Each structure stands twice: as structure tokens, then as C-alpha cells.
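Researcher: Checking consistency across runs. Here is Glutathione peroxidase again:
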Amino acid sequence: MYHRGAALAATLNCLVVLGVGAANMYSFCDERTDGKTLHNLTTKDLDGGIKQLSDYDGVVTVVVNGFPRERERERERERERERERERLVLIHKWFTYQYKQMNALLQSINTTHYVGKITFVGFPCNQFAHQEPAANTTELLNGLYYVRPGNNYTPDQNFHLMNKTNVNGVNESSVYTYLKETCRLPTAAKFDPTESFWEPIRPFDVAWNFEKFVIDRHGRPLFRFLSSVEPFDILRILKHLVDNTGKLDKAALMGNQEISRSLLDIEEKYKSEY
Ligand SMILES: *[C@@H]1O[C@H](CO)[C@@H](O)[C@H](O)[C@H]1NC(C)=O
Ligand SMILES: *[C@@H]1O[C@H](CO)[C@@H](O)[C@H](O)[C@H]1NC(C)=O
Ligand SMILES: *[C@@H]1O[C@H](CO)[C@@H](O)[C@H](O)[C@H]1NC(C)=O
Ligand SMILES: *[C@@H]1O[C@H](CO)[C@@H](O)[C@H](O)[C@H]1NC(C)=O
Ligand SMILES: *[C@@H]1O[C@H](CO)[C@@H](O)[C@H](O)[C@H]1NC(C)=O
């Protein structure tokens, strides 16, 4: 009896080492009792039309917010603020390079097995340091093309941009209300009150641009990752979710070597951030 208990303790310890206890940069989403999934929701697409998120049935989806971009006339002022920010101790980075990484990831899996099975869904947002002031779709796409990240950047065909959205505060999108009530904010999140433009502030609010919610092919949110976690850091997890068509519960996810290893690697890579 004693030995069996010790073995169990060792197993649990091992699980803790492999992610659960070290979950600073990500959180496991809660299993919902009402069975509501992301696919039950709608949002506005880039042209202002209704987008049924059930379109992503069968697709592993990463929901990501915030697409920094400057209006021409605001660029110089913005650059000054950026320089000022760099002078201060940087809590937040701009993360704009992640646009390119999302494209690169989607292109790296452009094989018949994975193509169209993994999608990034982007919600442009102007609530953090007013990074996304685009007035309309043309401005938004031009901003991506010419300014940030620039160099004729065009989102990959499996990177779908939605309409500009509030992710926090009184007018937040129902998609984000749903995601935030299902997935807690990872503990290493840092809010910068001088750069956060919404109220009221709620406990699980999105802390910054480029937070990532990983949704399985059935529409169930599984993980929430902080902004610094890069698309390629979660690639093995995404592939695993494509390869395993069943409804994986938390225990099954934790028990999977590939996933625990990815989570452990993420904690290790970003441990200087908390
Ligand atoms: C969500 O959508 C599914 C499939 O259409 C439906 O069966 C279910 O009743 C919906 N659940 C909620 C909470 O809306
Ligand atoms: C969002 O939808 C509206 C229509 O409701 C449209 O005018 C606007 O251009 C769309 N795009 C953005 C980025 O706001
Ligand atoms: C993905 O592959 C298809 C078919 O091979 C090709 O037509 C398409 O251009 C590729 N897309 C990218 C972004 O490389
Ligand atoms: C988008 O906004 C820009 C600048 O505010 C304006 O010049 C342009 O006409 C607008 N385009 C549309 C389609 O509304
Ligand atoms: C929320 O939306 C309402 C209706 O569009 C608007 O009057 C109000 O100013 C908005 N509040 C904030 C804080 O954006």
C-alpha cells in the first residue's frame, strides 16, 4: 500500500514537472457544463458580414487578438512613444513579428494532411496602447501591407481576419466573453494600466495583443497562451489536435508526451518573463 502511494505521488510529481504546476505562460481551459462551444457563436467578418464560427467545425483554430498598425498621420507620434517605451523597462513588446510567423507556420504545414485543418482567426483590436486605430478594412489591410509588419504583408489564406473588436470592457465581443469565462488568464500575465483602454477591468481580461486561444476541431477551447508564446511554440500541439480526431479531455491532453513536452518547453523558454 505504502509503495503504491509513493508510486502515485511520483507519477503526480512527474505530471507537475511536465506542465501543470508550471503553468505560468498558459492555462488549461475549463470544461464547460453547458456544452457551449466556439462554434455556437458568430462574429462580424472584415467586410462587416456575419461570420458563423461553426464554419470552423473540423478545424483546429487559434483565436488571436490585436493587429498593431498605425495611421500615416500618427506614425511619427507613435514612433516617439515607442522610443520612449523602449527607454523604460519594457513590460510589453509589440509582437508584430508574429504576423509573419503565423504565415510561416501555415505555409510550413501546407501539405494535404494539414492544410485547411489549422486556422488562425484574428480579431483586430485597439484596446492596448491604441495599437490598431484602423478606421476601416482598407486602412487595416494597408497597414499590414505597408507598415506593420510591412513588406507587402498579406495574411495567409488560412489566417482569417475578423472585424475590429473589443476584447475587454463593456462592449466586448461575445466571442471574447466566452473565451475568457472558459479559460483563465495565465499567471505570468502583466497588465500595464497606462496602456489599457477599457473598463471595467475584470479578472480574466486579455492582458495584451497576441494572446492565443487554442480551440479543438469540435470548437472546445483547450489552452490560452500569453502573447510572447510564438506560433511555432504551439505547432506540435496543433498538429496533435489535427491527428487526434476525438474529444481529448484534460487528462488525455496531460498524458500526451508531445503536448506535455511542448508545454514544458514553453515554460522553459519564457521563464525570464515571470
Ligand atoms: C451549440 O451548437 C450545437 C450544434 O449546432 C447545438 O446542438 C447546441 O445546442 C448548441 N449549444 C448552445 C449552448 O447553444
Ligand atoms: C467592420 O464592419 C464595418 C461594417 O459594420 C465596416 O464598415 C468596416 O469596414 C469593417 N472593418 C473594420 C476593420 O472595421
Ligand atoms: C499551398 O499549396 C497549394 C497547393 O500545393 C498551393 O496552390 C498554394 O499556393 C500553397 N500556399 C502557400 C501559401 O504556399
Ligand atoms: C477608409 O478610411 C480612409 C481614411 O480614413 C478613407 O480615406 C477611405 O475612403 C475609407 N475607405 C472606405 C472604404 O470607407
Ligand atoms: C459601448 O457601445 C455603446 C453603443 O454603441 C456606446 O454608446 C458606448 O460609448 C460604448 N462604450 C464604450 C466604453 O466603448
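Researcher: Does this match what you'd expect to see?
Model: One thing to look at in this run: The longest strand covers residues 60-65.
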